[in-house]
Amino acid sequence: MFSSMAIAATLVFSAHAGTLTHDHTPPPAPDFSAERDPFELDWTSPAAGIWVGVRPQSARFPVTGTSVIVIGETGALVFDGGGTPLQAERVAEKIRTETDLPVTHIAISHWHGDHHLGIGPLREAWPEAVTVSHSFTRAVMDSTLMDSARNPDATPPGALRGQLEGALANPDLPEPNRLWLEQGLVWVDLIEAQGRAGRIPEIDLVFEDSLEIDLGGRVVSLVHLGHGNTKGDIMLHIPDARMIAAGDAVVHPTPYGFFSYPESWAAALRRLREFDVDLIVPGHGGLMTDWAYVDLLTETLQSIADQTAVLVAEGHDLDGVREHFDWSALEPRFAGGDPFWAGRFDVWFKRPILEAAWRLETGLDNEELIPHEHGVE
């Protein structure tokens, strides 16, 4: 099923690489009037043989990762094939429309389910394809971190509808949040069915730092730049197209901070900044042709690491860190004063990232690997 973390969080409330870039512009208020289902993708082709499928309205319920298709002369690679089977079926349909070549590789950017739980149709359509990830990501698949996906029937049918309706019953719910949840409620049966249909994938090949893949006349690289959104984040670098797909190390317009690694994440983004590319594909959100948002995210993550270290050294617990942390120079540049984005920034980033930073400063592990057979029922 979808990551329980993602659903719970949802319900709470081009410049050349060396060119100096302008500051990030906060996003406009989201449009909740779209009638398309939440797993449809808008496809663009930034270079020959490359297709990027972005879900319109990146914050729409439920969160859904971007898919990238790279076609060479002998085969194709898919990066993040889909969090649901329906998304993967649409990725497969797009591949068949563009080429008769087989998919040879399916790469998974990290272990969060909205990027891989649906890739079964891709593996069935191209059974010889090799599924690739970082070694940590494969280790997670056999751990308690995936228990909610391992047992999708543990949640009774209709539970998601009840959660959405319960949230909508709040008389103090801000209007943008009401519209957002109502949009999710329209598609709740499809969302729940797709969640139940997802399966934890088997991963055939792992690597630590980098892996080159020859697709015939086009060599791409999968790279691990360090702990970031997870310990196993990987990115897809396509040198001949001067582009990189960053997975959830870059999510626009609101990053996800759950159980992540602020200081090493900032360092990973600095290493990303060294790539000679003109296009950055976030794990969620529209394509980027400059570094402004990456720079803002780097600055923010470093500030979180630095401020949290000082506050913990002063003896503050997690509540104290949250009370004394200074967001004044950072939050307005993400949310731009829009109440919806401010709410998402709070729930998806501010609360979890400070908990993650506090845990690290106090010696706790944000992604402890416990074999699932030893976990609680």
Largest sheet geometry: 7 strands, mixed
The CATH C-level class name: Alpha Beta
Decide which structural class fits the backbone: alpha/beta
The helix-strand sequence is HEEEEHEHEHHHHHEEEEEHEHHHH
CATH architecture tag: 4-Layer Sandwich
- Strand ordering within the main sheet: 1-2-3-4-5-6-7
For the record, the count of structural domains works out to: 1
For the residues shown, what is the average pLDDT?
91
CATH homologous superfamily name?
A: Ribonuclease Z/Hydroxyacylglutathione hydrolase-like
The total of helices stands at 13
Low-confidence stretches: 1-22
Q: In angstroms, what is the radius of gyration?
A: 20 Å
Distance between the termini: 16 Å
Give your account of this protein's structure:
With 377 residues, the chain is an alpha/beta fold. It has a single domain (4-361), classed as Metallo-beta-lactamase, Chain A (4-Layer Sandwich). It is built from 13 helices and twelve strands. It has helices spanning 4-11, 85-98, 120-125, 135-141, 147-150, 159-168, 175-186, 188-197, 262-272, 292-313, 318-324, 331-335, 339-361; strands spanning 42-47, 50-54, 67-71, 76-79, 103-107, 130-134, 205-207, 210-214, 219-223, 235-238, 243-251, 279-284. The strands form two sheets. Strands 1-2-3-4-5-6-7 form a seven-stranded mixed sheet. Strands 8-9-10-11-12 form a five-stranded mixed sheet, covered by helices on one side. A hairpin with a 4-residue loop joins β3 and β4 (76-79). α9 packs antiparallel against α10 (292-313) and α10 (292-313) crosses α13. Residues 1-22 have low confidence and may be disordered.
